[in-house]
Structure formats: structure tokens, C-alpha cells
Amino acid sequence: MRILFAIATMLVLTTVPSCDSNSSRMGTPRAAGTFRVKPVKNPEFHDNELFRAYEDYHSPRVERLRERYKLDDVVRSETDEWKRILLLRHWIHTHIRIEDQHPTSSKPEVFDILDKALEGGGFHCEHFSIVQDAVLNSFGYVARRLGCGPGLKDEGGHHGVNEVWVNEFAKWVVIDAKNDLHFEKDGVPLSALEIRDEVWKDGGKSVVPVFGIDGKGSGEAYSQAFDVNPTAYRWCSWETATNRFTAWPSSLSSTLVMLDDDIFRNNTWYRDGEPHWAYDTPYLIGTTQRGWIEWTPNVIASNVKINGAKANISLTSFTPNFKTYQMKRGDGEWIDCETDVELPLTDASNRFTFRSVNLFAVTGPEHVVQIDRQ
User: Which residues does 22 contact at the CB level (< 8 Å), separation at least 6?
Assistant: First the structure.
């Protein structure tokens, strides 16, 4: 019988005051005198239960990486977050030669890989993911490493890629530097779990591989490679060691997280003809909570309490390298604010917008609190 080392599935929620009928969470309306909190569709908040480590802004390796390879020049003229991420991905793709069978010998860390790549060395997907993880995190974009594969007994290859949290989409997106690739459905970039779901549903017929910076790159050179096909994401596992770059050399191994759902329980992931090595080991962490895997960096949740003509708003988020929260009233200017704010309700319609900011000056998704006079 397979032994599964599972994470408890009890969700941990922010406590809401229980004895005040004028309280609300995330925009749920409660009568409060002449004012009411109006429901607003905000990005959903999932706390970080499994991936608690993150790259350290203060590590000298961050500045060293950006300066040594002149990475700031790659994105200097671009302000759009997603386009900056694509530019960085493309730079990695064009500066490392692909060599799947006989990669250049190197340490499993970004500086050694890049130095040897710039001297003509060739590397496979794992090396690309190590470099991209370090590069994206050095700009304040929350990235992580994962392994995936078709998982069939006669088709059990393995591919190492990254996911990055894209604030403007408020979601995780698979980003593959080796192939300069991500996947979309109906024009929306997809996470690993979203690709996986489509593959198990119908083989991923609605999933489109998108190559290059502007989506016009050609994937013809890789058309025979299994790792540019959505079916390569039939199985996925996520590393919990999400600070490998700045913790080097202390972080060399990692437990793996897999979603413990019907697919996991009723099927077997094969690698190279054998069941995945992590089965029946302490390295496999299973969770039934999808939101624990797709936790939401930089996303805000709020508690709102109305007292007469004032609103007391408390903010929470899990923002790696957190610097401050910011807010604006209506279409006003952004200003720094505290975790708990008391705001006057001066108009019939009061809209307050909040966001988190990290030490890299990357801003999180906007969170709106709307309070109207009834």
C-alpha cells in the first residue's frame, strides 16, 4: 500500500470579529447605519501554507546577478510586468545553448551555469529552470521550480520548468526558458495545474503553446520535443525549497508537493518506465488543497468594520520581501498606509483601493473596498 505523507487539509483563515453585526470580510455586506460594504470581485486570497521560504532581497547575490550579466539593460525600456518577464525569459533562452543528452558539467547554481553557458557550454531543462528561478526572483517576481512529465509507462520523460506569479493577471503562469515558451487558453496564460486539468480532460486540445517575446516566435525547431506539448504537464510536482538562489549552497534538496486528488489517487506517475521515485518516501508531500499549491503572493484580504461615518480596514497578505501597503481614495494618488487604517466616509460612494509593495518596488494586484450610503 502506497504511503502518502500528506499535509493536513484544514484551512487557516483570518479571524473576523464575531460579536459585531457591522463587520464584513472580503466585501460581504453587513448593515451598518447608513453605510454598507458593497460586494466587489477581488483576486482571491490563499495564504502560503507550504512554500514559506523565499529569496532574500538583502542577499548580495541578488545585486551581483543583475550587475554581472547586465540584466537591468534587458528590461530597462519596459514597464509592463508580463513583458519584462518575457524579456528576461527570452534573454536566458538566447544565452544558453540547449544540450539535453550531454550537458556541460557545472554546479547546480546560476553563476556557474551562466558563466559556462556564455563560454559555449550546453545545458538541459533543469539548468534553465535554476537560472530562470534566480533571474526572475532577483527582480522581485515570485518564481518557483517544478517538475512535470507525461507520466505514462511508455512515455515517461521529465521536464523541469518554472512558474511565476504574475501580478497583473493575479495568477501563476508556467514559464519555460529552455523553449522560450508558455501556454495559453483563450489568450490567458496558464498555470501548471490549469494545463494539467486540460490534458486530463481532453488531451489539452484547447491549450496553445506560445513562443517568443511577442507570441510570434516559432516552435518548429522543437516540434518533435515532448516538452513543448501540453501533455508534458499531465503530472506535476512543486519544490518546497523556494529560496535556493540566495540560500546557496545550503539548499540542495527539496521535498515535492503534489495535488492529492482523484487523478493522483487513481493513477501512477511513471518516470523512465518506473513509478516516480518520490512515492513511498518522506520527500513526497500530498495536499488535497489546491489553494495551498496555488497560493497567492502579494494578494490582499481585508476585514472591514464600519462605525458611523468611519471605516476601520485591516489588511493581510503574504508578500515576500514586503515593504509597505499603499492605498488611494477614488482616482487619487497612491500613498503608503499601515496594516490597519481608519478612513472617513465622506461621500455617498466611497471606493478605497489597496495594494502591497515589495522591496523591489513590485506592486501586487489591486484590492478594492467599496462602501456606499444606503
Answer: 30, 31, 32, 33, 305, 306, 307
- Whole-number Å distance between alpha carbons of 12 and 132: 32
Q: Are 356 and 321 in contact (CB under 8 A)?
A: no
Helix (H), strand (E) counts: the chain: 9, 24
Rounded CA separation 111/122 (Å): 14
Alpha helix positions (H), 267-348: 290-293
Is the fold of 20-45+297-373 the same as that of 60-293?
no
Q: What are the extents of the domains in the chain?
A: 20-45+297-373, 60-293
Whose CA is closest to 220, among 209, 233, 231, 204? 209
Torsion of CA 52, 364, 299, 87, to 10 degrees: -60
CA-closest candidate to residue 370, choices 38, 41, 26, 23: 38
3-state DSSP call for residue 94?
helix
The string of pLDDT tens digits covering residues 25-48 is 444 444 445 899 999 999 999 999
Q: What is the pTM of this model?
A: 0.88
Instruction: Assign a CATH topology to domain 60-293.
Output: C8orf32 fold (3.10.620)
Residues 310-360: tens digit of each pLDDT: 999 999 999 999 999 999 999 999 999 999 999 999 999 999 999 999 999
Q: Could you tell me which of 155, 147, 156, 126 has the C-alpha nearest to residue 271? A: 156
Task: Answer whether the bond into residue 39 is a cis peptide, omega within 30°.
Answer: no
> 260 in helix, strand or coil?
coil
Locate 353 and state its grid cell.
Answer: 483601493
165's enclosing H/E stretch is strand 159-166
* Cβ 232 vs Cβ 157: under 8 Å: yes
Determine the Cα–Cα distance for residues 122 and 98; give it in Å rounded to an integer. 5
Between the alpha carbon of residue 176 and those of residues 103, 183, 228, 239, 327, the distances in Å are 18, 9, 9, 16, 34
Question: Per residue in 241-278, pLDDT tens?
Answer: 999 999 998 867 789 999 999 999 999 999 989 999 99
CATH H-level, domain 20-45+297-373: superfamily: Immunoglobulins (2.60.40.10)
Distance CA 346, CA 161 (A): 50
Residue 226's pLDDT is: 84
